[in-house]
């Protein structure tokens, strides 16, 4: 580019580094150097999956007067983190991550179906399916995909679990054909991405939990409403507890996985018919 001032002409040369896209001397980036950046991308609220639209029962809790301030919002979020998130979501996430690492799609399908079936209300199930499908589309953009076969394949036993009881006596081949495909959960797709990128289980699980905590904190700030400083404090408290929740989840055996949050489920059921609402769950 040429700039002219009076009689002086200055040539300003643009420099293209070897790291710039399209450069002729691009060099390969070590995938290990991208682990943190990949985790930041997956857990970013800017990820276009629509997580901001769901409160997971927090909106009806606010409407019912159960969550009214920073303290009660923190209790709500930390309570769910120590309960259902640790004993169900994170425990299943760990198994999905391991199964993807081993290429065991049958196990992936089984745990995916288990998690979806554990969602207590129609809104929670719809949220799980929506976020899973949205993240799947984002991952395709990033070059990660599951083949159509792997999305619905599995062992005969796994498929039979998805068939109505009246069909369980049918020959396995017929029963398998009757089994509807199970939607991909958000945990499944998050586990797929982190496994494909070679991200270790513990940081992957912590990022997964932080994604949930950030979305819940954002919902609380808007619903209660709370100031931004209160939101920062709640999220910091959640981050402090996440390593413990992950540790608890990783210590669970298969038969110990599961958790109940009856009040959250009841509030979610009420939310389905709530007259005025900001969130979809």
Topology:
Layout lengths: L1 E4 L2 E4 L23 H9 L14 H6 L6 H33 L2 H13 L4 H20 L6 H5 L3 H5 L11 H7 L7 H11 L4 H23 L4 H23 L11 H10 L10
Antiparallel strand pairs: 1-2
Helix pairs in contact: 1-10, 3-4, 3-9, 3-10, 3-11, 5-9, 9-10, 10-11
Shape: globular
Number of helices: 12
The Cα radius of gyration reads 23 Å
**Which CATH class?**
Mainly Alpha
Topology-level CATH name: Urease accessory protein UreF
Strand content: under 5%
SSE order:
EEHHHHHHHHHHHH
Strand order of the largest sheet: 1-2
CATH architecture: Orthogonal Bundle
Provide keyphrases for this structure.
mainly alpha, Urease accessory protein UreF, 3% strand, 2 strands, 281 residues
């Amino acid at each position: 580019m040429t700039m002219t001032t009076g009689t002086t002409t200055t040539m300003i040369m643009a420099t293209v580094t070897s790291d710039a896209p399209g450069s002729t001397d691009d060099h390969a980036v070590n995938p290990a150097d991208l682990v943190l950046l990949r985790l930041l991308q997956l857990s970013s609220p800017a990820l276009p999956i629509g997580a901001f639209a769901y409160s997971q029962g927090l909106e009806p809790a606010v409407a019912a007067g159960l969550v009214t301030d920073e303290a009660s919002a923190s209790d709500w979020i930390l309570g769910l983190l120590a309960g259902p998130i640790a004993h169900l979501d994170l425990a299943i996430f760990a198994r999905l991550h391991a199964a993807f690492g081993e290429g065991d799609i049958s196990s992936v399908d089984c745990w995916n179906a288990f998690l979806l079936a554990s969602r207590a209300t129609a809104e929670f199930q719809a949220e799980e399916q929506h976020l899973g499908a949205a993240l799947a589309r984002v991952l395709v953009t990033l070059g990660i995909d599951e083949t159509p076969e792997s999305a619905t394949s599995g062992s005969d036993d796994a498929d039979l679990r998805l068939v109505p009881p009246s069909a369980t006596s049918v020959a396995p081949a017929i029963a398998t054909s009757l089994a509807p495909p199970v939607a991909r959960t958000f945990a499944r797709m998050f586990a797929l991405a982190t496994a494909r990128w070679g991200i270790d289980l513990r940081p992957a699980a912590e990022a997964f939990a932080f994604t949930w905590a950030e979305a819940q904190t954002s919902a609380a700030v808007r619903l209660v409403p709370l100031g931004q400083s209160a939101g920062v404090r709640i999220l910091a408290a959640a981050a402090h507890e996440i390593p413990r929740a992950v540790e608890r989840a990783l210590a669970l055996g298969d038969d110990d996985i599961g958790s109940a949050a009856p009040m959250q489920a009841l509030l979610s059921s009420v939310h389905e018919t709530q007259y005025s609402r900001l969130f979809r769950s």
